[in-house]
Amino acid sequence: MTASLLGQAALGKSIALPLFSHHISAGFPSPAQDYVERTLDLNELCIRHPTATFFVKVSGDSMKNAGIYHEDILVVDRALHARHGDIVVAFINQEFTVKELHLKPQLQLCPHNPDYPVLPIRDTDEFEVFGVVTSVIRNIPRP
User: Domain Peptidase S24/S26A/S26B/S26C spans what residues (predicted)?
Assistant: First the structure.
């Protein structure tokens, strides 16, 4: 699975949308004003560090069991320190990839699809964690 850089986050005009206070199980709440708890700005929800946040587009299916699919857009925060178990965008040997970071028992990048191998990071590899994935944006296809 590879990731292509789309660009850096730029916060401009805030767009506040209604946030309904009731959870949805199998229906849709009435649009009556009584149900609106507050407004929600997707920038506030998805972006904590605007100057260090980038968007990348996913290609491939090696992370499908983690809920990351081909053509999803990932919100990647470069200000966060990557920890064991984080989903990261990494740069390895001249390519960007999206994988789960494992720091122990050895440094490796793990896919979430059994069809793909674990990528151990060797001393000879050119390797850098580009950033930590904080959100996934997906359009639901319409029939």
Answer: 18-133
pTM exceeding 0.70? yes
* Catalytically annotated residue among 4, 25, 59, 62: 62
Same domain flag for 24 and 83? no
- Whether residues 28 and 86 fall in one domain: no
Active-site pick, 21, 64, 99, 135: 99
The stretches in the chain having pLDDT less than 70 are: 1-37
Range of the domain at 38: 13-45
Q: Is 104 a catalytic residue?
A: no
Q: Would residue 99 show up in a list of annotated catalytic residues for this protein? A: yes
Residues 102 and 114 in one domain: yes
Mark whether 85 and 111 lie in a shared domain.
Answer: yes
Q: Quick one: pLDDT at residue 39?
A: 72
